Amino acid sequence: MKNLLDDKYWNKKYEKGSLYDGLYHSNLPKKFSKFFIPFLYTDQIKKIKKYLRNEKILKIVEIGSAPGFFLIEIAKIFSAQPFGIEKSENGYEMNKRIFTFYGYNEENVLFKDFFDKDIETFSNYFDAVISRGFIEHFDNPSDVLKRHLLILRNDGFIIVTVPNKKNLNRFLSKFFKSESLEGHNLKVMNLKFFKKFAEENNLSIIFLGYIGIFDIYQINPSLKKKKIYNLFMKFQKILYLLFNFLPESVNLNSSFYSPSILFIAKKNG
């Protein structure tokens, strides 16, 4: 299994003072600051809550779990016990801090490579397995998804998101950093890939679709384009505020500009 990105990339991503270290912290009161976080983040949570709210989910694991905020939000919805699997040292330490801050056991964050043999001790263990922006960094993403199913119990739920770096997002990615598409397997960035995987692995699809509005949050700019990017992000936060108040009946999702694909499916026993 070839990883298209090295460990240095992930350690830098989660080093102290990075974007991810402070992304969800704000000087605004909590009831206001939540409207300025990425709409994609809140949209994912809304979808998971909508489609799985009546399910019994007690143990949740996220693969590549740093920084840990998303996992905690999902754990709160289901009153579940969260676990994280994180291979980067900086990400692992950040995830532990976040767990401790919110009152969860930091020992539930495992400092491991998802492909280590001892991960198999969790075979059929979890009620829900989550990964976000993970499988597209491998040369054979179908095999990576099958490993998700290994640690998922029968009748449990797999929740996966991948970025949509095609169409408008492909152009923006190249504009802000010409080499930014390196390390991404674009073959997974379509609905057909997930439909085929579900058919071949006895999964019942609960939700599959493009989600989110136009959003440059996921794009990593080069140093030369950092100022332009920061300017864009000021306008982006205004969009977050506006779209967080839209009713769910308004569907603005599109394969042309939506930043992500969300896949929720049930593992049939």
Automatic annotation (TrEMBL):
GO MF terms held by the record: methyltransferase activity
GO biological process: methylation
Keyword annotations of the record: Methyltransferase, Transferase
A UniProt-annotated Pfam family: Methyltransf_23
Keyword check for Ribonucleoprotein: no
Keyword Phosphoprotein: no
Record Gene3D superfamilies: Vaccinia Virus protein VP39
The name this protein goes by in its record: Methyltransferase domain-containing protein
